[in-house]
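Morning - aspartic acid inputs below, output right after.
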Amino acid sequence: MKHLFGIAQLSREQIEYLVNLGASFVELSRRSVKKAPTLRGKTIINLFFENSTRTRTSFELAGKRLSADVINISASTSATKKGESLLDTGETLAAMQPHVLVIRHAIAGTCEFLADYLPDTSIVNAGDGAHEHPTQILTDLLTLKQTWDSPQGKVITIVGDIAHSRVARSHLLAAQKLGYSVRVVAPKTLLPLAIERFGCEVYHDFDAAIPGSDVLYMLRMQTERMTSSCCFPSIREYHEAYGLNRRRLDMAGKDCVVMHPGPMNRGVEITSDVADSARSHILDQVECGVAVRMAVLTALCGGGQTEPVRRSRKREQAEAAMKAQGKLL
Ligand code: ASP
């Protein structure tokens, strides 16, 4: 595997491989000395153009626990604030010869775009707009593996802002590959057009979707991606219709668990008593997030990795143009 852009690119076998490899790293993270030499000599740059607590920290910890050198850059402190283009930032970082560039960006497709210009750097998508968030789905699958050996045949009910959620989209893609079902629950204003093409069941009534669910997966409203103010009437009404509270949890089967990718908005999509209940796997997801990112970094940096950047695509093109014009290099 050269890059990780999304669940869409992965086969069932690759997903299972990464989740199983992640399982082996959970144990390492629980030891008092949390260090393995696997990625010694490797450099990882985390480049985050959107806010993040869990994903950024877990990529950093994952790299450090595997002995890689890890650098974190956030948009607010990078030269993009001085007008540098994304491509120039990418090429600049690639010229420092990292093995892996982990990128979060508000624009869908950013990772694929940069990969075209940085041929020798592995790129990991840590969330691109409303498009994909592959490591969150691997995290969730590893979390569920601790309860069920396989997600096959299970029903994951995803509730909330489906329209703007990269997590929901990546789950819909994973479900088709791994054989679990997804129910999506949202008002029409928070559902993308033609959502049925993903093969999911669509509900507007949360109560109706609860019986038969194995997981109630709650989403935050992605207000940073909402272009109109009419996606939901008010927080209070949204909470009434789509918030997970004790009454709704009691309607679910006794083995049904609660998940949330974080960050949670308590009192909006979930009440505190549910978030902190024994049926909540939200902090298990956080723990598994580190292990899964260790697995992804290992898969990308492990055997067969090409040598890092020697020269950028832009420079090669400029040199080819000069050669074509008969100019000396
Ligand atoms: N952390 C997840 C993401 O980055 C979910 C969220 O932000 O609501 O997509």
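Note: Residues 127, 133, 166-167, 220, 222, 261-262 surround aspartic acid (CB under 6 Å).

O.
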